[in-house]
Design brief:
By secondary structure, this protein is α+β, with helices and mostly antiparallel strands. The protein is built from 23 helices and seven strands. The strands form two sheets. It has a four-stranded antiparallel sheet. A three-stranded antiparallel sheet has the order 5-6-7. The protein is elongated and about 95 Å long. The two termini are 21 Å apart.
């Protein structure tokens, strides 16, 4: 024990060797003395307040004196024990390890009154941010209260006992989020929950209308409302999203559906730059859905990495800005049209969708950063890094195949001239880019399909800021590919078989997709708040 309300509380730590009378029971009796003496009879109000404070792994080791001062600052900030208040709540601070302490206090003041500790979590967080500055510790991104609710310690201990990598709450959040992405109506949503193996029950108004829902997993006893999983998973928020979606997807071939999703995703950066805040937030929410679905429908070799990226981007999905989902209805619709394709085995198609999603995610990070959404921006940057790695793996073979089919010298010279004519400011960077041979192949394919290469090149460049592109040739070749690829006979045959698929078969396909192995995000995610 490093500090207490009066400096004389009995320390039960065995290493202190203070004698058998200094026990935990004796300390608890001292703490509870005001509670037992002054608490109103029959009151069921909580009387124990607990807070853990942890330093980052890379921080220096703080001394007992420093930790004691930090504990007093937290207690003062939360109103549990204001500085100089001799009648405040009793408390102790215990150092279990070098990097963290636990603060335990009673919630009955020594004068019998209730402490003024409203919004204690927010107040403690604010003080923690200042402590990081004062003690030169790792700075944690301040939050805005929109993060998904974290599992409790009891939930974490239960998952550990059962040998599960993630808690029931986290598993349910992932499954419910996928069910939303797989649905266009409320009826389809509950059907999708069934197919994902999620038990659910509806709460009804006196009129009989559904006002909300709760979910759990087989074998679990705890039920969670949608809002207890994440604020945007409440039924009213889900209904707002469904209201912006055309419930009848168009009958596209699989190839056309993936191409349409890529082309629609290309518009996200421009929408974020030019639209209002509500439209921007709507596009980010729709982008999160697309990433969820793309991860679920990706080939097994890439699925785990993409699921992890989708989990990280989940934090960037919400802010205090209320989304106008209708502003992103095209992306919502394109996402749901993918569900009728049952995935893609084409490496070039996967590389294409990953490239445009990664670019949109980086634009989302910049959008959040400009508005001071630090946690969301950090989550989006992390997602971009993961997607870039996944893209490089997926694109290696398709780019090699395209480069292997590089046109002859005469055609190559002609395409260089076209680039110089259409994009004079970027021509040198494009034609000296290592991916230029692959871009030339794409232009040749477009020409053979009857397209005007200058027109295709101009259209491909329009949605992008080539000045900021690390590889302008790759940016152009994937953008051009979305405008030139033709559906094959096999694609049309597959579309005929899948266009009548229902929400049940769609959800079954996604439900059969294994989720990614959990990562220790608690230890490595800088968006977490102390």
């Amino acid at each position: 024990m490093i500090a207490s309300w009066n400096g004389f509380a009995p320390d039960p730590a065995p290493e202190r060797k203070r004698g058998p009378r200094d026990t935990i029971a004796k300390l608890a009796a001292h703490l509870d003395l005001p509670v037992n003496a002054l608490k109103a009879a029959g009151s069921n109000a909580p009387t124990v307040w607990h807070c853990s404070v942890r330093a980052a792994p890379e921080d220096r080791i703080l001394t007992d004196t420093e930790w004691a001062a930090i504990a007093r600052r937290i207690l003062h900030a939360t109103g549990i024990a204001p500085k100089g208040d001799t009648k405040a709540c009793r408390w102790v601070a215990v150092r279990h390890n070098a990097d963290h302490i636990h603060i335990v206090a009673t919630l009955v003041r020594q004068d019998g009154r209730t402490p003024d500790n409203g919004r204690d979590f927010t107040r403690a967080q604010r003080e923690a941010r200042q402590i990081e500055i004062d003690y030169v510790l790792r700075r944690v991104r301040p939050g805005d209260g929109t993060a998904a609710k974290r599992p409790t310690q009891a939930e974490q201990h239960r998952a550990k006992r059962l040998g599960q990598a993630t808690t029931a709450r986290e598993q349910l959040r992932t499954k419910v989020r996928l069910a939303v992405a797989a649905s266009s109506t409320e009826e389809q949503f509950f059907l999708a929950l069934d197919q994902f193996g999620v038990l659910h029950k509806k709460s009804l108004l006196p009129s009989g209308d559904v006002k909300g829902y709760s979910v759990t997993l087989p074998g679990e006893t705890a039920w969670f409302s949608g809002s207890n999983l994440a604020s945007d998973l409440s039924l009213p928020k889900i209904r707002q999203r469904f209201a912006a979606i055309d419930p009848l997807p168009r009958k596209l071939t699989p190839a056309a559906a993936w191409k349409q999703a890529a082309r629609t995703s290309e518009t996200v950066p421009n929408a974020l730059r030019t639209g209002n805040d509500e439209a921007g937030q709507a596009h980010i929410a729709a982008l999160s859905e697309l990433l969820d679905v793309a991860a679920a429908l990706s080939p097994p070799a890439h699925r785990a990495r993409l699921h992890q990226a989708a989990e990280v981007f989940e934090r960037a999905n919400r802010s205090r800005i209320k989304p106008q989902h209708r502003k992103a209805s095209a992306l919502h619709r394109a996402t749901r049209e993918l569900l009728y394709t049952n995935g893609t085995k084409d490496g070039e198609t996967l590389a294409l969708i990953l490239f445009v999603i990664a670019a949109a995610v980086i634009a989302a990070a910049e959008w959040h950063a400009q508005r001071g959404h630090q946690q969301q921006a950090e989550a989006a940057w992390q997602t971009g890094v993961r997607l870039h790695t996944a893209y490089q793996q997926a694109a290696a073979q398709p780019l090699a195949d395209l480069s292997h089919r590089t046109p002859d010298t005469h055609a190559l010279t002609r395409y260089q001239h076209t680039v110089q004519t259409v994009l004079p400011d970027h021509a040198t960077r494009i034609t000296t880019d290592p991916a230029w041979p692959a871009l030339a192949t794409v232009l040749a394919d477009a020409e053979h399909a009857g397209h005007d290469t200058a027109e295709i090149l101009g259209q491909a460049a329009e949605p992008h800021n080539l000045n900021q592109a690390n590889s302008p040739a790759q940016t152009l070749l994937w953008s051009a590919r979305t405008r030139t690829r033709k559906a094959t006979a096999d694609d049309r045959t597959t579309a005929a078989r899948t266009k009548t698929a229902t929400a049940r078969t769609t959800a079954t396909t996604l439900a059969a997709t294994p989720t990614a192995p959990a990562t220790d995000r608690a230890a490595h995610d800088p968006t977490r708040r102390r």
